[in-house]
Amino acid sequence: MGLIDRLNSINNNNVDLNDKKELKNNSINEIEKETEKEKQKQSEKTHLQKIVYNTSNKQQTGKEKELKNKIQKTILTQFKNDDVEKIISEIDSIALEIIKKDGEYLGDIDRKAVIDEIINDLTGFGPITPLLKDEDISEVMVNGPHRVYVERKGKVVLTDVQFRNDEHVMHIIEKIVSPLGRRIDESSPMVDARLPDGSRVNAIIPPLALKGPTITIRKFSKDPFTIENLISFGTLTRDMAIFIDACVKARLNIFISGGTGSGKTTTLNVLSSFIPDDERIITIEDAAELQLGQDHVISLESRPANIEGTGAITIRDLVKNSLRMRPERIVIGEVRGGEALDMLQAMNTGHDGSLATGHSNSPRDMIARLETMVLMAGMELPVRAIRQQISGAIDLIIQQSRLSDGSRRIVSITEVQGMEGEVVVLQDIFTFKQQGKDQNGKLIGKMISTGIRPKFYDKLLASGIQVPDSIFQIEEW
């Protein structure tokens, strides 16, 4: 029985007057509570609606979908062997002709929106093309045909973009991976790829993805970020930039560690830009993302196994091969397996100035992960021998994090000083001190120098690189 019915029942039945009043008051209180709950639910719903990122694309009406299908059929019959440019130039006239012939398409049909969608399907990547062109968006996540999220200014939000169905999403995935000679199907339902602009793509499809084909695109800026951009974003300070620039030019071996989406590859790209133009650089990646501006750059990319399960070329294979290519610098996009051993050996045998990234939560964790990855190479080495290799090879670990407010910052720059007993000795040169949040939820904090000059400071001087002493002065904050 509802609350209103209960009130009516109280009024109609023979109940003692005082009991009646008490029952009525209790029922009214319950009604007020129910109303308050409804208001709260509505408020939460409104808040969720506010965080949806609206694009200029509105949902098509039934008539617009019919018009789009007719235009597509006309294109297939009339322009089978013609190039895309010719088809695009004719789409508008085809649409006008169909509208003139069939009066039902006159009225509230947005012809331009229909034509734009067809062009996006032909030359771009379907409904997500506007998202890829939006410079404020750094990541696009397609969770099946009807849920598309983006990362915008550090925050993940839902968009109003939708695909028609699973087949439409699959068509876009095929369009991305086919030009790269990669495939995706039920026998190989996962793939890593890249867009023509270098943006990184991962796709996974049923039966592994239960809610439909899923695409994750990590966008890259058309113009690679510079150190000045990172300073303006608050990723690091100018003193840190001067110090890192000196370390790269002095041919120190540097490892960038951090979590997923923390900005490791962007920082690696910026550090690589410090390498002098006259040096031969070899980059090794799973999916080529680095955008180096130097002339003498050789980019290598790993390859998955073919349909017979053979022909795979791993990062480790490429690291071994790169040593025969007379490299002056080796830049590895991400170290995640047995290639760690070959990388450390290269760093310890004259290949100074190498750069690499890896996943970890802190510099100390990065050392532990490198130990594990060396063991993944299948070599039964004592832990002490592995640690000696690590401490002898790596000079500097740059730790980067994506913080709770969505900002990406370098939270520590740590020197690897060597071994002390059984332990690899680490010393922070710069560290991030956080003091809270402001009223907008932004973190309040600052990168400060620990006041300790690194042991390799003499190596910087020997390379003819002057680093101001003021950089290492201790800061109180």
TrEMBL record:
Q: Which Gene3D superfamilies match?
A: 3.30.450.380, P-loop containing nucleotide triphosphate hydrolases
Tell me the keywords, alphabetical order: Coiled coil
Q: Does the keyword Coiled coil apply?
A: yes
| Record family assignment | Belongs to the GSP E family.
Gene Ontology MF terms in the entry: ATP hydrolysis activity
Residue ranges of domain Bacterial type II secretion system protein E in the record: 123-400
Lineage top rank: taxon: Bacteria
| Organism of provenance | Clostridium grantii DSM 8605
What's this protein's name?
Pilus assembly protein CpaF
